[in-house]
Amino acid sequence: MQRRYITVDVFTNRAFGGNPLAVVLDAGGLSTAQMQAIATEFNYSETTFVLPPQDKANDAQVRIFTMRTEIPFAGHPNVGTAFVLATRAANAPERLRFEEKAGLVPVEILTEGGKVIGAELTAPQPLQRSNEVGAAEVAACLSLSADDIRTDRHKPQVASVGLPFLVAEIASREALRRARPDAAAFAKVLAHIGRDVIYFYTRDVPASEQPLDLQARMFHPGASGLSEDPATGSATGAAAALLADLDPARDGELRLRIGQGVDMGRPSLLLTRVKKQAGAVTSVHVGGSCVKMMEGTLNVAGEGG
Fold first, then answer.
1. Does the pLDDT of residue 305 top 60, yes or no?
2. Phi, psi for residue 154 in degrees, rounded to 5
3. Has 46 been annotated as catalytic?
C-alpha cells in the first residue's frame, strides 16, 4: 500500500535550516513496530504518523517517534504536522486539535498574506519542576567547567510541559559554543535522575545574533551515540515556562525569542509565550515558521495493532 509523506524544516523560514520532520499522512493500519521502522528509516530526530481522531471533535491522532522510541509529545513535530495539514486543506483552518499520548495539543495556524507559514502549539500539560543537579555535574556532561554554569536565577533543573528535560543556564555565548557532550558523564549524571537530555541556554546573546533573548542548544541520545538537536520545541517550552515561573511578575505574558541550531549550521527561531495569573503559569505556547522540503510515497502494507 502506498502511503504519502511530506518532509518539512521546522522553526525556520528557509530551506535547510531548522529541524527536519517527516509526516506520514496515511498511517492507518500501521503497527507500532512498522511506525518505529519507518522513523528509523527517515533518520530524522522525529517522524509523525497522522491517524483518524478517536474523538470526532478533534482533527487527528498524532503519534511521534524518534529513531529509537515513541514519545508522548514534542514541539517541532506538532508545529510541522499542523503546517502540513493546514497547507493541504482547501481552506486553511485557524487551529487544529491533536490527540497525543501526553494529552490534547491545540495548534494555532500562522498565516501571512493569506498563506500558511507555520504554527504555534499550546503545551498539553502544566509546568512540572523536579530534580535539581549540581553545576559541576552538568558542566562535566557538557565538557565545561563549573564556572561556565550560572545558578543565580535557577540551578540546573528538570522541567516539563509534556516531556521532561534537564534545563541549565550557561554563563556566556562562548561557553555555549564550546560545549561538547561527554558520554561517560551523561551516563553517570542523567541516569541518576532518570533523564537522558540536556537543554542549555545563555542570556549572553551578541549583537550579531539579535534580536534574540536567548541562544540555546540541546544534546540527546541519537541513533549512534550522543547527538545535537537543531530546534527543540518541547524543551524550549519547558525552559520558557520555568523562567516565567521564576519571574516576580504575578500576572501577564512572558515572550521570548530563542535561537537554536546556530552552532551546528541549522539556525532555528522559536517564539514562546507563557501566560501567568495570580503567580502561576497558566499556559505555554511555542511557535515558528516552516518550509516544505520533500514529498513522496512509502510502500508499506498495514498490519494493524
1. no
2. -160, 150
3. yes
3-state SS class at 298: strand
All three cell numbers of 297, joined, read: 510515497
Which position has the grid cell 522541567?
Answer: 159
**Which one of the listed residues 46, 100, 120, 169 is annotated catalytic?**
46
- The full DSSP string for 51-67 is E--SSTTSSEEEEEE-S
| pLDDT at res. 222 | 73
Number of neighbours of residue 74 by Cβ within 10 angstroms: 28
Average pLDDT over residues 149-157: 97
Torsion of CA 288, 291, 294, 298, to 10 degrees: 20
Q: Say if residues 38 and 298 touch (Cβ distance below 8 Å).
A: yes
Q: What is the pLDDT averaged over residues 157-165?
A: 96
DSSP state of 165: E
SS3 content of the chain, % helix, strand, coil (to 5): 25, 40, 35
DSSP 187: H
pLDDT at residue 304 in the model: 58
**Cα 78 to Cα 39: distance, rounded to the nearest angstrom:** 16
